[in-house]
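DUF1217 domain-containing protein: structure, please.
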Amino acid sequence: MSFTPILPASGLLGYRLLTQTEDSQRAIFETQPEISRDIEYFNKHIGAVETAEDLVSDRRLLRVALGAFGLDEEIDKRAFIRKVLEEGSEDPEAFANRFTDPRYKEIAAAFGFGDTLGARTFEPGFGARITAAYKDRQFEIAVGGQDEALRLALNFRREIKDYADADDPEGTAWFSVMGEKPLRAVFEGAFGLSEAFGQLDIDRQRDELRQYNETVFGSKSLEVFQDDEIVEKAISRFLIRRSIEDGPSAATPGYAALTLLGGGGGVGSTGLANLILSSTL
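Here you go.
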């Protein structure tokens, strides 16, 4: 892929600069030959796909389908993906429902091969929905090629609203978030959690995340992320803490103050985080 995003800075400043130019950068990205050819091919041929076998037998179609759900790395696991798709999403015992990663259930439900109503590939607008998701994720991958933290931020902004609108945003939706590594990374970063947190009992992890969420964002429920300002606050906290882990630079908010306070002797990472977060959020 020849597209290279323009990212003049990292961290929170980089995110803000990226969002200011995002529309124009996405427009350029979508004209790249590889992306435009994939989308054209998918839209032209997906309507003829009737079974999971049809889909996995066409690598070009499969590449877009998997890419739309962030499953690009599964492109060579044809038998595995076929089983995910064929068993659908409705049966609690279906193959896709055995994984904590919700992406398998999402792709199975989206294509519908194993569900009651069958393949959804014939539905009006189906190709457009899948290719729109594909473009979003591929743009994020391009950004991540230069700055993984910014990719995680873009992914969080796009994905978290689905969980905010979930049936049980204070309960089971948290388990789904915990099973999706990119979302989990942003929450753990925003709350300043260490790697040891992942070793806790799964129910305790959920309870502690809810408590942190209430303390920082005002609610134990993911429903709070229906508010764009709360979404941006979470992203800001994550990026600030990530920048501190990487070491502050002149582009870090509050850097001048940190330099003065540090007096050349250094400032602890917790102190840096608290100072910067209090001055920017």
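Notes: The longest helix spans residues 11-30.
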